[in-house]
Design goal:
Distance between the termini: 27 Å
Number of helices: 9
Number of domains: 3
Oligomer: single chain
Strand content: 15-25%
Strand order of the largest sheet: 2-1-3-10-4
């Protein structure tokens, strides 16, 4: 077990990008409030920050996480904050996701100069994104678009639209909300039912060592939102079940409406020419806030979990069942299957 001296600050490891620093800052302030301790940010440079190649060509899953986890294992920091959508679905030995705070907006946003909807852009319009899922979704919505692979920070991406180099770009609403950039560009939020986003999009993962100081683990548990954890567990189980990496053309979103969880999953052909879809509505209800459990109500999808059992396992069962049905309907033909990520 590792321990932190009572008078020492808690060290939070983070990527150095503006978005990562902003997200980590939010968690740091919340952790200071619940723990009564000072939290300092430790900037860590990952391969994904220094290599400007396409994300889908950099090894895909975990490109931002590997160096951060090396720093955590080496004792350079006490915890990490990740964008959950960037994490491989397989949790490495010795590390735990100690908290998933309340999720931000999970939608994607199309940014243009004049607010023209994606489907109404002129044929040949150049749309910037480096995500195979977003490429497939954009081409499915408008097959006459031209796609430009895009890297860089949020400001540099938006400037390329302002300057007229690109007609539009696709970004995550959560990142825009957290950064609050000033821009003359117009936003078009895409509906999650028609345009499901990456597993875990909009959610943060607070990770630490499994043998972390019990006081730190207890403080982090107070930042956990049970419904967010349940929803993203379903989503990541879908991704793991079809053995597709986090940069595969797969969209999946789970959300709560009252005591029901609604799940929408879609696997796309690379140019959006094909789609395999699955949808599920299941009655559940949140247990005591902060405990990380969901108790099932009713028969749902017949997964057979009993009331009182840790429903995070039930969430994984739901996601695995959806993945199995997607595969049975042909999803394996649409993704390059990897080792579970």
């Amino acid at each position: 077990m590792t321990s932190i001296a009572a008078d020492a600050p808690i060290r939070l490891g983070t990527r150095r990008s503006a978005l990562a620093m902003t997200q980590s800052g939010h968690v740091a302030r919340a952790l200071e409030e619940v723990s009564g301790r000072t939290v300092e940010l430790v900037q860590i440079v990952s391969e994904g920050d220094t290599n400007r190649g396409s994300l889908s060509q950099l090894g895909g899953t975990g490109v931002f996480a590997t160096r951060l986890r090396e720093a955590l294992a080496a004792g350079e920091c006490d915890l990490l904050v990740h964008s959950l959508k960037d994490l491989p679905t397989a949790q490495p030995d010795g590390f735990v996701i100690a908290a998933t705070p309340v999720r931000a907006d999970a939608r994607d946003v199309i940014l243009t100069r004049d607010g023209t909807p994606l489907e109404r852009l002129p044929a040949g319009s150049l749309v910037g994104t480096g995500s195979p899922r977003r490429i497939a979704q954009a081409l499915r919505a408008h097959p006459q678009l031209e796609i430009h692979d895009l890297r860089g920070n949020v400001d540099s991406r938006m400037q390329r639209v302002v300057d007229g180099e690109l007609s539009a770009i696709v970004l995550a609403a959560a990142g825009l909300d957290r950064l609050g950039p000033e821009t003359p560009l117009q936003y078009e939020h895409r509906d999650l039912d028609a345009w499901p986003t990456a597993a875990g999009q909009g959610a943060l993962a607070v990770e630490t060592r499994a043998d972390a100081d019990p006081d730190l683990l207890a403080a982090l548990a107070r930042l956990d939102d049970p419904r967010t954890r349940f929803a993203v567990t379903v989503e990541r189980a879908v991704l793991a079940g079809i053995e597709a990496g986090c940069h595969a053309p797969v969209g999946v979103h789970a959300r709560f409406e009252g005591d029901e969880v609604h799940v929408r999953a879609a696997v796309y052909g690379v140019a959006g020419e094909r789609i395999v879809e699955e949808e599920l509505i299941l009655a559940v209800s949140a247990d005591t806030p902060g405990q990380g459990y969901i108790r099932r109500q009713g028969s749902g999808n017949g997964a057979g979990a009993a009331d009182g059992v840790d429903q995070i396992d039930h969430a994984r069962d739901i996601g695995s069942g959806i993945a199995r049905r997607l595969l049975e309907r042909g999803a394996a033909d649409l993704v390059s299957r990897e080792s579970p990520s």
